Structure formats: structure tokens, C-alpha cells
Amino acid sequence: MLPGETLRQLLGLICGLHVCNTYVGQAYRIFGPSMFPTFNATDDIVLVERFSTRFQKVKAGDIVMAVSPEDPALVVCKRLLAVEGDNFTVLPEPLSEDVAKQVLIPKGHVWLQGDNPSNSRDSRHYGPVPYALLQGKVCLRIWPPFYWGKF
């Protein structure tokens, strides 16, 4: 194989990977206890597809990856509990004296919460999340192998 051909193939591979990561999906490593027991606190790897969020096909109950509204350098894994137009009851944090309150999810926003409420920083702290921050829907756990499966 000629050096020019190798370079062309390498550039094609890099471009193909970029297109797949940007428009199709990618793998993410889950870190932190906010989604326990659904995911382990470390070392779970999930496959995230981008079509559902790009075409607004996510619904309550889906697990999604989103850019953190508090730290744009951080991508978080949360469960989507409500979409725009939903009236959602926000339950107080465990061991809190707060009372439940109703929230109307505004247009272009969703409500995200972790499955482990006592160890999750989520919409209960920063409110509804702009839909544009959603990165994709978790569709498959690929690591560890003995927990492999679809969502």
C-alpha cells in the first residue's frame, strides 16, 4: 500500500468516526452514584444514540446523557421524568422538611433526576433543563459484560 493511500484511509476513518460520534451515537463511561442502582458508581459503559433527542422522541422514563447546566464541561447521566407541558410533582429530598411542589415544565425543557435521590444533583437543584443540552438516549449497557443489555 502506498503512503498516500494509507493517509487517505486514515483520514477517511477519522472523518467517519467524527460523523458517527456527532450524529449517530457514542459510548460514555458512567461515573458517580446518582444513577445507582441502575448503574454502578464507576466503570459502567453505555451506548448512547442521538436520533431520539435530535428528533424529539424521548419520553418520561428514558435514561439520557445531558450537558450539565451547572458545568458545561460535564456530561451527566439522568432519568428524564417530564417533558415540556407536563405538570410535575417535585418531591422533597430525603430527610428534608420541604414539601412537595408542582412545576409546569416550560416549552423546550425537560425534568431530569438521578435514580439515587440522596446522591444526585439534578433538576431538583437547577430546575428544568433546556432540551438542547440533551446529548442522547442510553440504549445499551456494554460494560461490565455480565450486566450487558438494552434499556
UniProtKB/TrEMBL annotation:
<dbReference type="GO" id="GO:0006627">
    <property type="term" value="P:protein processing involved in protein targeting to mitochondrion"/>
</dbReference>
<dbReference type="Pfam" id="PF10502">
    <property type="entry name" value="Peptidase_S26"/>
</dbReference>
<dbReference type="InterPro" id="IPR036286">
    <property type="entry name" value="LexA/Signal_pep-like_sf"/>
</dbReference>
<comment type="similarity">
    <text>Belongs to the peptidase S26 family. IMP1 subfamily.</text>
</comment>
<keyword id="KW-0496">Mitochondrion</keyword>
<feature type="domain" description="Peptidase S26">
    <location>
        <begin position="100"/>
        <end position="143"/>
    </location>
</feature>
<keyword id="KW-0999">Mitochondrion inner membrane</keyword>
<feature type="active site">
    <location>
        <position position="34"/>
    </location>
</feature>
<dbReference type="GO" id="GO:0006465">
    <property type="term" value="P:signal peptide processing"/>
</dbReference>
<keyword id="KW-0472">Membrane</keyword>
<dbReference type="GO" id="GO:0042720">
    <property type="term" value="C:mitochondrial inner membrane peptidase complex"/>
</dbReference>
<keyword id="KW-0378">Hydrolase</keyword>
<dbReference type="InterPro" id="IPR019533">
    <property type="entry name" value="Peptidase_S26"/>
</dbReference>
<feature type="domain" description="Peptidase S26">
    <location>
        <begin position="9"/>
        <end position="88"/>
    </location>
</feature>
<dbReference type="InterPro" id="IPR000223">
    <property type="entry name" value="Pept_S26A_signal_pept_1"/>
</dbReference>
<protein>
    <recommendedName>
        <fullName>Peptidase S26 domain-containing protein</fullName>
    </recommendedName>
</protein>
<dbReference type="GO" id="GO:0004252">
    <property type="term" value="F:serine-type endopeptidase activity"/>
</dbReference>
<dbReference type="InterPro" id="IPR052064">
    <property type="entry name" value="Mito_IMP1_subunit"/>
</dbReference>
<feature type="active site">
    <location>
        <position position="78"/>
    </location>
</feature>
